[in-house]
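Discussion board: Methods & Data

I've been asked by a reviewer to show the raw model output for two of the constructs in my manuscript, not just the figures. I'm not sure how much to include, so I'm pasting the format here to get opinions. Each protein appears as its amino acid sequence followed by a line of discrete structure tokens. Is this the kind of thing reviewers expect to see in a supplement, or should I convert it first? Here is construct A:
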Amino acid sequence: MINAPFARECQSFLQRICCSLGLKTLYLSMRWSDLSNGYDQPKPRTWDMASVRQIEANRRNATRSTGPKSAGGKTRSSQNALRHGLARSAIGDPAETANFAVAIASGLGHGVTPASALALARSKLALLRLRRLRQDMLAGLLADPIPAGLKRLKALERYERYALAQQRRALRSLGTTEG
């Protein structure tokens, strides 16, 4: 069904055409309901859906692109988004961390659990790595001061706050208040 304002506009348009053509009446072969067929209802969006051929082609392509197969390729692709490695949970050499944890436990002497000594060792090593990286970045900025270098330097604060929070938790679990 056609809406009333649209019907009036169409009727006035047709009357103007008839007058301009010098006709008294204009005979149409269609009725108003035929003119309005489909205008009131939204058309189905067929372009959003993939055809059966497209779905089959997508499946065939997916079987060919499954990522690297060799160990070397997997190792290379695992480093694709690596920038500095500070967000990884296990940074550095596990043997170095274990040796440092043993040194912490023996230095503190009183009932230190291996888990709390290991947590403290991880946080201390993370802080050392961050400070070393900051020194390198500052030396690079002295040689070539660029705004992007300052932005990267500021981004280190996030990782340092996280490492300091880990250190506080580890010290709390030891029962000491040393910093």
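Construct B, same format:
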Amino acid sequence: MLDPATMPLDVVPARIWSVGNYALGIAFSDGHNSGIYTFTALREIESVETEDV
């Protein structure tokens, strides 16, 4: 699990690409680029409350 206290606030999406008809690939400015995010999962994230920092 990610500890939000250890996550730099300046990490942003650097590149986004389509993965078939079901997902997006996202590369982040910190070098992480191994994730494939399905549209269903992204919609679920959208409904989660976020903390305003």
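Answer (T.O., handling editor elsewhere):
This is acceptable in a supplement if you add a one-line summary per construct. For B, something like: The mean pLDDT is 85.
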